[in-house]
Design brief:
Blueprint lengths: L1 E3 L12 H7 L5 H13 L6 E3 L7 H11 L3 E5 L5 H13 L4 E5 L1 H5 L1 H5 L6 E3 L4 H12 L10 E3 L42 E4 L2 E2 L16 E2 L2 H13 L4 E4 L8 H14 L4 E6 L6 H9 L2 E9 L3 H6 L6 H14 L2 E8 L7 H13 L4 E6 L7 H8 L5 H9 L16 H16 L2 H10 L3 H16 L1
Parallel strand pairs: 1-2, 1-3, 3-4, 4-5, 7-10, 10-11, 11-12, 12-13, 13-14
Antiparallel strand pairs: 5-6, 8-9
Helix pairs in contact: 1-18, 2-7, 3-4, 8-9, 9-10, 13-16
Bound molecules: cobalamin and iron/sulfur cluster.
Length: 464
């Protein structure tokens, strides 16, 4: 049984609740990938529970686990959701589950701390498909799990902490059958209201933004043919919108163009969204993407000043940013701009207001603002510790004993947490409550459900 924990006690978030609530409507892609691999390569039975989607109370979760009585439960873990991961582990153990495995981004960063949590029998680092298969096969044969690449298991597995599993050939992963989950219930608040899913077509990113610790040396892509096979399987299920969650979709323009050519030549009709870097965006690329059905590009802009961009090692200039947004407008692809506020180079309220103004001047279709929250394991975090702004100890305590009171430290050299939240709310109001934005979106609403979703998100934002 593979479980995404409920999102009840997420570490106090750096985005307003209204935005967070809408964010949590994406499918559990990691669990789907692992479940599909197990089904493909073994006779194990698999069931996926998305306790987040249903906001499942722990008693109900425990009941479902007891009813199905799995031999092994696998849980996916984001660091910010550690309290819920912890409660999920407890619910499973109380329901009599013999073995609990935890994987996901949190484990990649803090494997030993996670293995030491009560109730955890093993952790999996890196891509979990193959390690999870080897682990459950090993347990099914009654053997002690030792020496499986990417796995650390009790008791006394001698696998070194830095041993992480990655495949060199992403095409070897089986095509995901989204009917393993309740795929019609997921949606994208910025989307067009059609049946929606997420997909991943590459792993890693070679850039070095200081706030991000995605694996740098292991950038790998799926072939266009493999990606299109999975798209075709989605279309067969009636899915019409796909969000590619690759860290950075456009590491090279050639790969994007090859994929677009394949989509066009196969006649695959759907609308899609990607996460992009600004660098390298040109008209030829955008026109090709538009022809292949791309309707939206999400850009991590983060800052509007050269100093801010340099400090975060974004490796782009504000001129390149403005050029990319102008080109998208011209070609007719919607844009989302991600910004951070409360960065080390925003030293006064005016600096943050300048960031907000810059985001409006760029004229994206949507903006997402986050308060910068440096995560341990990133270069920015190390810089904060070096400069005496951040302290690792509270994080370590949280990871060893997750508790609901923990608040992640923000970069508080110039602003208090309260100041930053106030500025964050101001940023959302300034962007979204401009008459030009409200009017444009009123005309873009496609159906009643779409209207309800957008209106609810908007009203919650206004109230925050
Ligand atoms: C899409 C995405 C989102 C989406 C949807 C997230 C979701 N719940 O599905 C949204 C926009 C909501 C989001 C929000 C956030 N995100 Co996000 N997000 C991603 C992104 C781009 C893709 C995730 C994905 O679907 N990957 C595809 C799957 C197939 O890969 P995977 O998750 O890595 O899973 C593999 C392994 O980890 C492992 N595995 C995973 N689970 C399990 C379980 C078991 C049992 C096993 C054995 C193995 C295993 O095997 C999987 C298959 O190979 C990643 C970066 C990335 N490219 O992965 C960041 C990432 C996961 N996000 C991150 C962060 C920090 C956040 C936020 C905190 C940001 C913020 N400031 O608000 C929020 C938190 C949201 C919340 N409340 O939980 C970090 C997580 C760091 C951490 N230590 O937890 C990441 C890694 C980005 C980064 N490099 O910093 N995110
Ligand atoms: S471009 Fe995106 S994924 Fe790559 S290092 Fe920067 S923030 Fe991380």
């Amino acid at each position: 049984m593979l479980i995404r924990p409920p999102a009840r006690h997420t570490v106090e978030s750096e985005v307003p609740e209204a935005v967070e609530a809408e964010n949590l409507s994406y499918p559990p892609l990691a669990l789907l990938s692992i479940g599909q691999f197990l089904l493909d390569q073994s006779d194990h039975e698999v069931r996926i529970i998305d306790a987040q989607l249903d906001d499942l109370p722990y008693e109900d979760l425990g009941r479902q686990v007891r009813d199905w009585a799995p031999d092994v439960v696998g849980i996916t873990a984001f660091t910010v959701q550690l309290v819920d991961v912890h409660k999920t582990i407890r619910a499973c153990k109380e329901a009599g589950v013999p073995r609990v495995v935890v994987g996901g981004p949190h484990v990649n960063d803090f494997p030993q701390e996670c293995l030491d949590l009560p109730g955890v029998d093993a952790v999996v680092k890196g891509e979990g498909q193959k390690p999870m298969l080897d682990l459950v096969n090993c347990w099914a044969k009654g053997e002690v799990a030792k020496g499986i690449p990417g796995v650390m298991a009790h008791p006394d597995d001698p696998v070194p902490v830095d041993d992480v599993y990655f495949t060199n050939d992403l095409d070897e992963y089986p095509i995901l059958d989204r009917s393993l989950i309740d795929y019609q219930r997921y949606y994208d608040v910025m989307g067009e209201g059609g049946v929606f899913t997420t997909m991943i077509s590459s792993r890693g990113c070679p850039y070095r933004c200081t706030f991000c610790n995605t694996p740098r040396h292991r950038y790998r892509v799926m072939s266009p043919g493999r990606v299109c096979d999975e798209i075709a399987a989605c279309l067969d299920l009636g899915i019409r919108e796909i969000y590619f969650v690759d860290d950075t979709f456009n590491i090279t323009n050639k790969r994007v163009i090859d994929l677009c050519d394949e989509i066009i030549s196969r006649g695959l009709k759907f609308s899609w969204t990607v996460r992009f870097r600004v660098k390298g965006v040109d008209r030829e690329l955008l026109e090709k993407m538009k022809a292949a059905g791309c309707t939206r590009i999400q850009f991590g802009v983060e800052q509007g000043t050269e100093e801010g961009l340099l400090r975060l090692k974004k490796d782009v200039t504000s001129r390149e940013i403005e050029h990319a947004f102008a080109l998208c407008r011209d070609v007719g692809i919607h844009t989302v701009a991600y910004f951070m506020i409360g960065t080390p180079t925003e030293r006064s309220r005016q600096d943050v207001l300048d960031t907000i103004d810059y985001s409006i001047r760029l004229k994206p279709d949507f903006v997402m603002y986050n308060i910068l929250t440096p995560f341990p394991g990133t270069t920015l975090y190390d810089e904060g510790v070096r400069d005496g702004v951040l302290d690792l100890e509270p994080w370590l305590q949280f990871m060893r004993a997750p508790n609901e009171e923990f608040k992640a430290q923000v970069w508080d050299e110039y602003f208090s947490r309260e100041d930053l939240r106030e500025l964050l709310n101001l940023a959302y109001r300034r962007f979204y409550w401009r008459p030009s934005f409200v009017l444009r979106n009123a005309f873009q609403v496609r159906n009643l459900n779409d209207f309800k979703r957008k209106a609810t998100a908007g009203l919650r934002l206004l109230a925050s």
